[in-house]
Amino acid sequence: MSQISQNFNSFLVNISEKWQKKWAESKLFESNPNDTEKKYFTTVAFPYPNSPFHLGHGRTYTTADIYARYMRMKGYNVLFPMGFHYTGTPIITMADDVAKGEKEVIDIFKNIYEIPSDVIPKLSDPLFMANYFKEDIKQAMRELGLSIDWRREFTTIDPEFSSFIIWQFNILQSKGYIVKDTHPVGWCPVHNLPVGMHDTKGDMEPDIGEYIVIYFESEKGVLPVATLRPETIFGVVAIWINPKVTYVLAKIKGINMIVSERAAFKLGFQIDDVEVIGKISGSELTKLKAKNPITGKEVPLLPADFVDPDVATGVVMSVPAHAPFDYYYLRKINYHTDIIPVVSVEGYSKPTAVEVVEKNNPKNDTDLKKLTELVYKTEYNKGKMRDDVLQYVEDKYKDKLKEIVGLSVPDARKIITSFIIDNNLGTKILEIMNRPVYCRCGNEVVVKILKDQWFLDYGNPEWKALAKKLLSSMRVVPDEVRKDFEYALDWLQKRACARTRGLGTPLPWDKKWIIESLSDSTIYMAFYTIAHKIRENKLHASQLTLDFWNYVMLGKGNIDEVAVSTKIPKNIIEDIRKEFTYWYPLDMRHSGSDLIPNHLSFFIFNHAAVFPENLWPRGVAVNGLVLYEGKKMSKSLRNIIPLRKAIRIYGSDVIRIVLAALADMGSESNFTDSSAKAVSDTLKRFYDISSSLSQYKGETYGMEERWLLSRLNDVIKLATPLMDQMRFREALNMILFGLLSDINEYFEMIKAEKRDPNGKVLKEVLEGWTKLVSPFAPHLAEEIWSLLGKDGFVSIETWPTYDEGKIDIKTELIHEYHHDLIDDVKAILNVFKGTPKIIKIYVAEDYKMKLLKDAIEVLNSGGTLKNFMSTHKPKNSNEAKENQKIFEYANSLSDYMKKLALYDINEEEVIKEGIQYIQYKLGIEVKVEKFNDEIKKKYNKDSLPLRPAIIIE
Question: Taking CA atoms, which of 117, 384, 410, 884 is between 20 and 30 Å from 841?
Fold first, then answer.
């Protein structure tokens, strides 16, 4: 699987074990209140232990840990705790799969996760499974080097935690934020349970949307045509029916309707008393005609395999003017009909769907889907109802619909929808818009209208306003996902918060219900602050009353009375309260981008509801998903890599860097073998240099040493604000790859000088580098820190600060100039015919450098050629041309060249200072001389400052 050197790989694994053990023994990451230090409290979404961690799980935990380690080095008292999510259906469903002997699940456990054969049958017990995988995940977190305070660990079925959840729900109910109501939810039709994101395969949140159903009458019954675009009803030329599907005649809302079999089943969850009367084949239906209720026009029923009987009613209207599928397939079956445009879009000479199909010539349904999205979006944003649309309307409705003429598509859609409903010409039904979504039990999720169900009322205006206020005060990383949070807070309405199946806490006032998993995991971060205190003091769940939690979390109530009623000594309650108030509010919450529409938004809502503003969370950081070799990890692709296995192959420091620091936070991260090898090779080079430090006996402190120390301090100066902003990719590029490149370059410079590297300077650089890389590769950093003769842990050293006095911009610019000069010579050598013996570099006359410097100063102050000429009045036309040439040249220079010219350098001396390096890199003798008229005549060349004439002989 990997090309990484097995020796270095084994070394990385061994030192990881060594330092993890030392951290644990020294209790390095156990955090306690300390009033002399600033605190930083960070958490990550705790995992469901229903399978081991795979590579994709590692990213969020590692980004959180990198920042936690960085903040620790910045002088913060950092708390990074961890717990485990047992509640809900994920664990029970997975255990059920094992009990049923599901081949795919057993195969993955056995052959991908390498779970022993004798353990697998025991996983059919949900609690055994949860505890078994909890320990495995915990070990994976340790092996990954996460700096977690494990004293605070808990599970969501611990009785003590349940008492905390009961307190939370009592507060929400007392504020009117939990209601008993009728509301649509995603629903498992087998287990008869509401289904949210964590109850589905692939963690898909069911997205419930609305179809408008319009009643077309036929001799066999009403055909309820389902559409998302009721404004196009005037342009219907036919109805599509799937000829290969069985339809049913069913009494729905007291009307005999013809729908697909699946539609009748699904509608039964939304509408009471759906009664199937008989069956009819799709092919039989295509012999019928049906009447458009608004236009009064009869249209044929046409066969179409593309009609999905699982979507809405399985009956679809054909509007070829505005639906690419319809126009394409009508042409394909050679069905000739009038095209009836009802929406006009500026810039289109033909009906929109007709024009895009003819222009793009789609080959298949995938192409048609893309064109459909284009047409729908274009017409929604730019479309207007045509002036002649009323000609298609039955006389009795014309007056009622006259206001739609000239309206935008969104406005017309609202009016027509209301008209259809008000006149009993149709109805609304609900559908899972991102279908198919599957319950973890394997059955497709449907929409159910739940009655007498408990909901968290996220649509409550007062609560929504609070949540938005909280979001506006929060730091969001990366900032571009703030709009996704704003959308989610707006969009969220009622959400079922209780189930009848699964592990969890009973609803306090209606104990037949269990609080569902995304409702009990919203403010649990507060529980981390005191979980270990409850354990240390052997407090029983029965003592953790509502009064106890009110006092500890909100400071409400009389402590003397709380101590008496709970039988908890007053000093213990005070100590627990102090621990909470020290750590709260939460400073940063890390999670994946897929949790923005649910968990992370619920986290914001519930904090806003339960806690005062001073305890609201201060930040949330979101990262993208992880790909493996460019592909999403999935069971079907067999490309799931267990995290612990990956750590054994690559070493945890390599895994950490590739997962968390080779892509921007908001982007997907692509774990590849080649990127792992590149990181491993770079870490190995640093280790090799560090372990060879005693061999470097040089004491010379020249330009090369000034340059290297300048580069180190530059990196510290530039990388630190990037770390503050969690721009880990940019920071790591400088720290790991950039600094190694600089050290390698230093060795090249020294080699050219034929002298030993300066060991003292190298040690200073390596000490700085070890601190800088410590948050990313903590195990190797500890090993190198020890190798450098340092005591203690680099993990708790102070983050390096730059020394402005050691940042030598001039030296850096000169070295960059040497590089450019070498590149220019190489470019000429590439086309040189013969064997070069000497390279002559002719630098421009001193007065030209003075002119260039003045031109740059004029440009930097916003001046023009006119300003420059007024300062340097030319004596003749030749001088004027030369001045103009210098000014235009100055304008074309790169920023670094402009900076170098402003240093008043002597170009000849600058080149001579690096002559040994230049000759070493080129392998040819180099001579430097001043340019003059004689050289110009001899070679017909010109020389400009910082762009000397180069002659090869």
Answer: 884
